[in-house]
Amino acid sequence: MKPVDLHHGSASEVGHVRKINEDSFLVAPPVFVVADGMGGHSGGDVASRIVVEEFARLAEEGYDPQRGAEVVAETLSRAQVRILQYAEAQRGTHPRWHAGTTCVAAVLVEDQQHTLWMLVNLGDSRIYRFNDGTLDQVSVDHSVVQELIEAGEITPEEAAVHPERHVITRALGSPDGVAPDFFLLPLAAAERLLLCSDGISGMIEDAVIEDILERIHDPRDAADALVQAALDAGGRDNATAVVVDVVGLVHDDSYDSERQLASLEDKLGARP
What we know:
single chain; alpha+beta; 6-stranded antiparallel sheet; 5-stranded antiparallel sheet
């Protein structure tokens, strides 16, 4: 794969309410991950750590950048198997025990000689891109409130205070299996990426995130500032942010998200 100059920063805090940090993250260029565990101590924290371990293995052993979609899908499948096996062992003594985790990841891949971001999402952790001073959410939350928004039953403002706003519809560790969303982004379409748990996006508005990413140029300081802003806003959840900058970009206005997603789904066999 062609070398890409990446600058990055990361930060994670337990917050003011939780006793443990169930978030895990990975910064291992060209692989970046945030996982938000569910299930408490020895549950959510283990599940999120398993995801990070599997992606760390991917980064350490290397991968074929032309097979990015398949490689990431295989990595998620290995994590799913390990989480389910761990859960089964725990239920031998604790029948009501459970564990799961969200996952967002950014991995560099190649397609037709171009280097791209392969982005993947499961759950309500988020991936944002920041380009030309504008913040856009790339991932789509797998949550009850997102489904209600798409059905026209509630507004995004109502979703922010809805009693089921933390209920997710997809996660690793779910017996329903793994059904991630994939996205492809040209590097020039994402000068800066943010991967974060909902301890960030659920505590501070997108306008605040955009302002921080606009003002603070060093990705390490930006990640710290995002986590601190979430803590200052109440810190009701674990807060984790990974900020990745692509250095020396040439702008490309040809990005077509629908075409890229359709192409990727064809590769994965999701379309006839």
